[in-house]
Amino acid sequence: MLMSPARRPAGAGDLWAYERDLTGRGLAPVAGADEAGRGACAGPLVAAAAILDDAPGREIDGLRDSKLLGPAQRERAYDVIVARAVAWSVVVVPPSECDERGLQEANLEALRRAMLKLDVAPGYCLVDGFAVDGLPAPGLGLWKGDRIAACIAAASIVAKVTRDRIMIGLDVDYPGYGFARHKGYATAEHTAALEALGPSPVHRMSYANVARAAGIARLADAARLTTP
């Protein structure tokens, strides 16, 4: 019988417990997937997948959910993960696709693509949060999976670091919004810039705050055109 969210494997306090339990059932290699940028109103959605090696000497010390690490810690962990992982992949979904598909469908599709993109076929797939269909192997969605499964934690770091680097680049391309600082999330700084400048080409127009800012910008443009 495979694990369900209600049944954690023995040694569940160990971040590697899921991988070891599934490996013991003949389901190796175990892949994990997670995303970054789901809640942002600008920039891409990024998903990553990873298969780790739990052999002695290959485990990644200090591996944790990316949200529990600082930027420098994430960068160091990223370097170790991509060097030691059996396989890893990244998928970048542009803002326009997030708008066209809807966020939930874009998220599921990104996680699916990341698993399918791995150059080592997984025997089992663990996904943060959601059950995803169309995966290359049987799978399970784990609530807060990035805190309880090593492969998902690794994927969360790869996704987060990749997306942060993209947002820092977009800060150069679209100055004034502060993308390098808030990474596209709706902070007070971002909201003020959005309403002052109007949306950029990398904002998600399906978000209410972005649509509102676009309306404000159109009204401002109309006022300027009609002012004598």
What can be said about this structure in brief?
This protein is of the alpha/beta class.
How does this model look, in words?
By secondary structure, this protein is of the alpha/beta class. It folds into two domains: 17-172, Ribonuclease H-like superfamily/Ribonuclease H (Nucleotidyltransferase, domain 5); 176-226, no CATH class. It has eight helices and five strands. The chain has helices at residues 17-24, 71-84, 95-101, 103-117, 150-173, 179-182, 188-197, 208-226, and strands at 30-36, 45-51, 87-93, 124-128, 139-142. It has a five-stranded mixed beta sheet.
Q: What labels would you give this structure?
A:
disordered N terminus; 44% helix; 228 residues; alpha/beta; 5-stranded mixed sheet; 8 helices; Nucleotidyltransferase, domain 5; 2 domains
CATH topology heading of the largest domain = Nucleotidyltransferase, domain 5
Count of helical regions:
8
Tell me the number of strands. Answer: 5
**Architecture (CATH level 2) name of the largest domain:** 2-Layer Sandwich
- What is the topology, as strand order, of the major beta sheet? 3-2-1-4-5
The separation of the N and C termini measures 76 Å
